[in-house]
Amino acid sequence: NFPNRYQIIHSSWALQFIYHKKDSQFELINIYILQTLNVNMPKLLKKLFTKTLYYPGCLTKGVLKKEFENYKEIFNKLGIDFILLPDEEVCCGIPPISAGYRKDAKNLAQKNLDLFKKKKISKIITNCPSCYHAFKTLYPKLIRDWDIEVEHATITILNRLKKKKKNQTGNENV
């Protein structure tokens, strides 16, 4: 049993070991060995410890379950790191705000922000147009402290495909 990211970050191991995920296998890597191999440590550590949340939205989680699995598989195959908060996240707030319940929507937005800050989420990827609109447009108006980057899943996938093609061809005009 290997420790998960949370256990490594919140333990003394973080100074000596990091891990990476390759083909669903976890490996502990000694940081000092990586330094001797001239690995760009700040870039590697940023990649390992920056948290991107995949927020599928209520419709995707509850009704479009196959699409939910497809998005996760695409992200994994493209090397897009993400976490899920299936038992903790709440509705984005679009249904209550659409029904005229601004206060309830603001409460949901604040609850989500508190959760995201607690989990140190720095970016949200969502495939749901309503959730995207809520996080990108409504949350900054409802909550003064909203500072989380939001990106639609299609843009995330497109950017990763462009990056992969650029890396393969060396051409920036992809």
Walkthrough of the structure:
Strand 1 and strand 2 form a beta hairpin. This protein has helices spanning 5-9, 31-36, 41-49, 58-62, 65-78, 94-98, 102-118, 129-142, 153-169; strands at 17-22, 25-30, 51-54, 121-126, 149-152. With 174 residues, it is an alpha/beta fold. The protein is 53% helix and 15% strand. The model is unreliable at 11-28 (pLDDT under 50). The strands form 2 sheets. Strands 3-4-5 form a 3-stranded parallel sheet. A two-stranded antiparallel sheet has the order 1-2. The chain contains 9 helices and 5 strands, in the order αββααβααααβαβα.
Secondary structure topology:
Blueprint lengths: L4 H5 L7 E6 L2 E6 H6 L4 H9 L1 E4 L3 H5 L2 H14 L15 H5 L3 H17 L2 E6 L2 H14 L6 E4 H17 L5
Helix pairs in contact: 5-9
Averaged pLDDT: 79
Write down the secondary-structure element order.
Answer: HEEHHEHHHHEHEH
Global morphology: globular
Low-confidence stretches: 11-28
- Count of individual beta strands: 5
